[in-house]
Write a structure and sequence with these properties.
The complex is a heterodimer.
Chain A: E1 3-5, E2 10-14, E3 19-21, E4 24-26, E5 33-39, E6 46-52, E7 60-61, E8 64-69, E9 74-79, E10 88-95, E11 101-103, E12 107-112
Parallel strand pairs in A: 2-12
Antiparallel strand pairs in A: 1-4, 3-9, 5-6, 5-10, 7-8, 8-9, 10-11, 10-12
Chain B: E1 4-6, E2 10-13, E3 19-25, E4 31-38, E5 42-51, E6 54-57, E7 64-70, E8 73-78, E9 87-94, E10 96-97, E11 100-101, E12 105-106, E13 110-114
Parallel strand pairs in B: 2-13
Antiparallel strand pairs in B: 1-3, 3-8, 4-5, 4-9, 5-6, 7-8, 9-12, 9-13, 10-11
The chains are: A mainly beta, B mainly beta.
Chain lengths: 113, 115
């Protein structure tokens, strides 16, 4: 069974600083996708970034980047130049060959002035 | 843009009532999902469907059933609502690429309160 673990329930960062959110996962599959989603107070889940396991290059989307370590089964999210609008719950998610999409328990990020 | 629409944003139901949560997607996605979101527990998968009339149990299917009669619509049914089913319910859809799910697109969520 695939599992996703986020060990940081809450984090805070000062505006304009950089923060890294951790995620580890467990799977026996060789090819899969990993995602980071953001859920602001509006409750709408928004895709932040996606990584395909067979791609060695880490994905980047503007201020968001990942550190994908396949052997260690680690998938962390780095947010650079943090903004107040980045305040949200962040979820790490995994999908492999079985159509199932599994989420972690989330990290509540607060960006402070 | 992909749109996933859930029929209600807020619902209040009585214990023992049969409850229907409806979800519609407009992108011809093969897969549809129902999740339950509770503080500290993240998103837990209730059921998912990979085709019309096809369904698979997720991690917490007890007390729930689903129906997918048309590709665009996926319904979650609480046969006899109980107070421990008070929660946020999220519907999502995704397509298939290289034999795997792609990213899921979510509805706005339904906050269900059972009294």
């Amino acid at each position: 069974a695939q599992t996703v673990t986020q060990s940081q329930p809450e984090m805070s960062v000062q505006e304009a600083e950089t923060v890294t959110l951790s995620c580890t996962y467990d799977t026996s599959e060789n090819n899969y996708y990993l995602f980071w989603y953001k859920q602001p107070p509006s409750r709408q889940m928004i895709l932040v970034i996606r990584q395909e396991a067979y791609k060695q290059q880490n994905a980047t989307e503007n201020r968001f980047s990942v550190n994908f370590q396949k052997a260690a089964k680690s998938f962390s999210l780095k947010i650079s130049d943090s903004q107040l609008g980045d305040t949200a719950m962040y979820f790490c998610a995994f999908t492999g060959g079985g159509n199932k999409l599994t989420f972690g328990t989330g990290t509540q990020l607060k960006v402070e002035l | 843009d992909v749109k996933v629409t859930q029929s209600s944003r807020y619902l209040v139901k009585r214990t023992g009532e049969k409850v229907f949560l409806e979800c519609v997607q407009d992108m011809d996605h093969e897969n549809m999902f129902w999740y339950r979101q509770d503080p500290g527990l993240g998103l837990r998968l209730i059921y998912f469907s990979y085709d019309v009339k096809m369904k698979e149990k997720g991690d917490i299917p007890e007390g729930y059933s689903v129906s997918r009669e048309k590709k665009e619509r996926f319904s979650l049914i609480l046969e006899s609502a109980s107070t421990n089913q008070t929660s946020m319910y999220l519907c999502a859809s995704s397509t298939i690429r290289r034999g795997m799910n792609t990213e899921a697109f979510f509805g706005q969520g339904t906050r269900l309160t059972v009294v």
